[in-house]
Amino acid sequence: MRSSNPVFSRRGFSRGAGYADFNAPPQAGGPAAAYAGANPYAGTNPYATETPQYAPQYTPQTRPMTMDDVVTRTGLTLGTVIAGATVGWLFLTGHLAFALGAGLAATVLGFVQSFKRKPVPALILGYAALEGVFLGALSGFINDLPKMNGAPMQAVLGTMAVFVAMLVAYKTRIVRVTERFTRFVMIAALGFVLLSLVNLLFMVFGGGDGLGFRSGGLGIVFGIVGVVLGALFLAMDFKQVEDGVAYGAPREESWLAAFGLTTTLVWIYWEMLRLISILRD
Length: 281
Description:
The protein has helices at residues 31-34, 67-91, 96-114, 121-143, 151-171, 179-206, 216-246, 253-280. Helices cover 64% and strands 0% of the residues. By secondary structure, it is mostly helical. Helix 2 crosses helix 4 (121-143), helix 3 packs antiparallel against helix 4 (121-143) and helix 5 (151-171) crosses helix 7. The relative contact order is 0.17. Residues 1-44 and 47-55 have low confidence and may be disordered. It contains 8 helices and no strands.
């Protein structure tokens, strides 16, 4: 199953009937055939030595990735985000230019890591630190606005609630990540991003609230859609982590899992903060 997250999109993960069947030959007319035009692995294990033409050249690992590895790396990455946010909140709330610079730098590091075939922990932690500085400074600025005191903490609690709810829904199979599910989320996310960019352009060149996607009743609906999309991204990330563990991905892939989960949680927090700000205004 391909992920919306660029961190996972080139890893070659795909499931057949729900089991780790990468070492088996692709079945005619099965899921492997559906991915044959887009997935370079086409039903084979990207980590198996039988496919040297396509398999990423990883340094031999002492053992494959485990769920504990993913939890540990994700905790470290999110901890770095929190540390950066603390610095931004305490020292850069009144210096938004520096915060925006940190946000742009984080975006650059995120794209660099996304297009690398192997995880670079320094890049991932650097992204987490700079993203944290940006979010912390901006959150502190919003918190000081009239009627906005406590909004960032509400956004944090809301993000945690979305994470727990989606994890439970995924583990109980209330939400099932299928090929159709992935296509729907990708199309919806593309439309969401394009509308956001158009609204931003109207705000920059036309002034005011642009097309109104970030204020009033329409802004509330748009904010809810953003949070829901983030929750659906989480389900797709959970699927990628589950598949990576089941297929014996190299241990270093846990850094990519941590990176993917962190970017999704940042998305949810930011959309939640904007939604709460609109509701309070």
